[in-house]
Amino acid sequence: MNNNLSVEHLTGIKDLTRQDIELIFKTADNFKDVINRPIKKVPSLRDITIANLFFENSTRTRLSFELAEKRLSADVVNFSAASSSVKKGETLIDTVNNILSMKVDMVVMRHPNPGAAKFLSERIGAKVINAGDGTHEHPTQALLDAFSIREALGEVEGKKVVIVGDILHSRVALSNIYCLQKLGAEVMVCGPTTLIPKYIHELGVKVEHNLRKALEWCDVANMLRIQLERQDIKYFPSLREYSMQYGLTKEILDSLPKEIKVMHPGPINRGVEITSDVADSKQSIILQQVENGVAVRMAVIYLLAAKIERH
User: What phi and psi values does residue 272 have, to the nearest 5 degrees?
Assistant: First the structure.
């Protein structure tokens, strides 16, 4: 197996090969062992400086990346643009040039504009990891989701995964569809018509509007968060109505003909997408997703760092 990624940056799952994904998983397996040791650090990236640029608020993804970077012994610079000179009109390129003049080797960026990570990767010398660009992609989330399915079910190939909820505003959904398909899984999306994008059929996924039918079909249900902050108009009458039609309860889960695994990229609106007793049930692999997020991000950072030219 080739131990090099075919890409120089991680801007989206679309650019990765199946071999790339499998290499990331194999590397993450090793790092998972590291995380569970008493001394959780490895000196792999001792001379690498990584800047985390978050132009959008994010707690979990930022913490997960930061933890991954520190476990690899990298030097970490955090930049939260929500509270910075970006508000004064400084452009993305200005901000980045300022940070690069501090001799940064890698940039982890979340940005509200689709394509921002790719735009950046074409203009700077540092390696770029996309931590979410608008409603476009969120590659490390898809990788950790697929890694968690592989861990729970042994493999991803041949498995049936349904992604439920706000597909229209979700970068997680798009990255997940690409990633799962590359690994040989069947993918279905499920949600109200208003939250399913028109182009979805072109991606080769099934569409189902009835939650029960979708759950009876799948091995894994990935329950997306309703992204109220991205919805400038009303896509459904009320949260209560949404949760009555598309919320996963313990009652529904227990009545299914087979046991399925339940995932959620977080943060959970408890009682909307899933009830608390589902989130905390033995079928839920939500906490494993969080733990795997650190190992998978360590793997991505480590593999991209191997491509940095040392001077």
Answer: -105, -75
Do 189 and 261 belong together in one domain?
A: yes
Q: 300 — phi, psi (to 5°)? A: -60, -45
Say how many domains are in the chain: 2
Nearest to 273 by CA among 238, 234, 243: 243
Same domain membership, residue 186 and residue 78? no
Query: Annotated active-site positions, please?
Result: 60-61, 88, 110, 138
Domain containing residue 70: CATH number: 3.40.50.1370
> DSSP character for 76?
E
For residue 46, what are the β-bridge partners? none
Q: What range defines the domain where residue 261 resides?
A: 139-285
Residue 19 class from Cβ within 10 Å (0-12 exposed, 13-18 middle, 19+ buried)?
middle
7 neighbors 20 (Cβ within 8 angstroms):
yes
Give the whole-angstrom CA distance, residue 72 versus residue 294. Answer: 11
What's the one-letter identity of residue 79?
Answer: F
What is the chain's Cα-based Rg? Answer: 19
Stretch (H or E) spanning 78: strand 75-80
Short-list 137, 216, 242, CA closest to 179? 137
66: CB partners within 8 A, 6+ apart: 52, 76, 78
Domain annotation covers residue 296? yes
Same domain, 153 and 278: yes
Q: CA angle at residue 235 from 283 to 270, to 5 degrees?
A: 30
Taking the chain (311 residues) in consecutive chunks of 10 residues, what is each chunk's mean pLDDT? 87 96 97 86 91 88 95 91 58 77 91 90 92 92 98 97 93 94 98 92 95 98 82 73 93 96 91 94 95 96 89 51
Other Cβ atoms less than 10 A from the Cβ of 241: the count is 12
Query: What SS3 class is residue 136?
Result: coil
**In Å, what is the CA distance from 120 to each residue of 93, 107, 129, 302?**
8, 9, 10, 20
